[in-house]
Write a structure and sequence with these properties.
Layout: H1 3-13, E1 22-27, E2 35-39, E3 43-46, E4 50-55, E5 58-63, E6 67-72, E7 78-81, E8 88-89
Antiparallel strand pairs: 1-2, 1-6, 3-4, 4-5, 6-7, 7-8
Length: 94
């Protein structure tokens, strides 16, 4: 399982985590700075190489390679960052 999928699954399935506490930043051409931020709670499916979300009538599938970072929505602390953008990981592998 990929590291990013492992982290997303932890956010959604671990009893100590709550998707409402996280946001996902990904590359989205045409958005300001070509980045889009969504709350993790709007993710409807985690696939082997992507995730799907539904927010405000917008439905999309985002490949993992477009994710820049996952962060705590309240503190802004980065939980995971793409190696292309200065890798950081707070959640450790099991």
């Amino acid at each position: 399982m990929s590291r990013i999928r492992e982290i997303l699954n932890r956010i959604f399935w671990h009893p100590n985590e709550d998707p409402r506490n996280y946001e996902i930043v990904f590359i989205h051409r045409g958005a300001p700075n070509d980045l889009k931020v969504i709350p993790a709670w709007c993710v409807v499916k985690v696939n082997p190489g992507s995730f799907e979300y539904s927010l405000g009538g917008e439905n999309a599938r985002i490949p993992f390679h477009r994710i820049v970072e996952i962060r705590d929505a309240k503190s802004g602390k980065v939980v995971w960052r793409s190696p292309k953008h200065g890798s950081t990981a707070i959640f450790k592998s099991a």
